[in-house]
Amino acid sequence: MTQPTSLNTPYVEPVSRENAPEGSKPILEAIHATFDRDLNIFSTLAHQPDVLLGTTKINDGIGEDLDPKLRELAYLHASQLNNCDYCTHYHAAKASKVGVSGAQLKALADWSNSDEFDDEAKAVLAYAEELTQTANVSSETASRVRSRLNDAQMVSLAGTVALANFTNRVNHGLGVQLP
């Protein structure tokens, strides 16, 4: 189910950097400095500083070990499966920036039948798909990924898919809008 197209206002309005709770202000300032703009998901989460901080800490952590292309493919695929237009919009752009090709972006919905992805990417996409759709991963899929990624990378992959599912649900549950 997609986010209702008739939704003209979010269920929770984003808070400005100036009006954010004190605990959220430095995080929002850092996000603005990084992206040169405010992002509605973070401005909405800013109403609860601990949730905002936790989300940004996980986001920072998943960027440590996993190849950025694999991370963005996993995040984007989970977001597509969840019909999250907000995350799909931003993570398609980020995927392009880290080297995911236009052909790969077009083939992502049917990745398992595409020659655009190597075995490593297909293993990661299978993992992201299973974890998103069932909240579980088969031992076969885990073994395929495990043969290609080390422990830290596996944790980062699981964190990436979990964060994608979390942000997708936050966006849908709070009616977060694209700017």
How are the SSEs placed, and which strands pair?
Layout: H1 25-35, H2 40-45, H3 49-61, H4 68-81, H5 85-97, H6 102-107, H7 119-134, H8 139-146, H9 151-174
Helix pairs in contact: 3-9, 4-5, 4-7, 4-9, 7-8, 7-9
- Series of secondary-structure elements, N-terminal to C-terminal: HHHHHHHHH
SSE class? mainly alpha
Calculate Rg over CA atoms. Answer: 17 Å
Count of discrete domains: 2
Task: Give a verbal description of the structure.
By secondary structure, the protein is mostly helical. Helix 3 (49-61) packs antiparallel against helix 9, helix 7 (119-134) packs antiparallel against helix 8 (139-146) and helix 7 packs across helix 9 (151-174). The chain starts with 24 loop residues before the first helix and ends in a 5-residue tail after the last helix. The chain has two domains: 25-61, no CATH class; 68-169, AhpD-like (Up-down Bundle). The radius of gyration is 17 Å and the shape is globular. The model is unreliable at 1-6 (pLDDT under 50). It has helices at residues 25-35, 40-45, 49-61, 68-81, 85-97, 102-107, 119-134, 139-146, 151-174. It is built from nine helices and no strands. The longest helix is centred in the last third of the chain and has 24 residues, at 151-174.
Features:
179 residues; mainly alpha; AhpD-like; 2 domains; 62% helix; globular
Summarize the structure.
The chain has 179 residues and is mostly helical. It contains nine helices and no strands. It has helices spanning 25-35, 40-45, 49-61, 68-81, 85-97, 102-107, 119-134, 139-146, 151-174.
